């Protein structure tokens, strides 16, 4: 069983916090060393937190959140709320609904996959098939 296959309920709170720290750090384009320097801690402390060992993360939550550009609640709960106006097509709404159900690390993988598809400028038509149909159909 891969770590992504472990149900969220079975993960320790420290591991979930560590995953959020890592995800947000990567989304901010920071290395562990860069995050450590900005927060005023050691790189090993960041690595310690990201592997689920919370240590003294509580006293650094405010500065971590500030450096990562989120509210402390996002680090603690993984949830962020922001009122936005958006008009979505039905397929965009479906994609957003499904995306919101993903584990944070899988969200990052999905984002990277989509970015690779968007950046594909080779001019070749992607071999995309409708769901439920084989390529030999």
Structure description:
With 137 residues, the protein is mostly helical. It is 53% helix and 0% strand. The chain is built from seven helices and no strands. The longest helix is centred in the C-terminal third of the chain and has 16 residues. The two termini are 33 Å apart. The N terminus and C terminus are likely disordered.
How would you summarize what this structure contains?
With 137 residues, the protein is mainly α. It is 53% helix and 0% strand. 11% of the residues are buried.
> Mind describing the biggest β-sheet?
none
Helix share bin: 40-55%
Number of helices: 7
- Mean pLDDT, rounded to whole units? 78
Report the end-to-end length measured between terminal Cα atoms.
Answer: 33 Å
Low-confidence stretches: 1-11, 128-137
Which structural class do the helices and strands define? mainly alpha
Number of strands: 0
The outline comes out as: globular
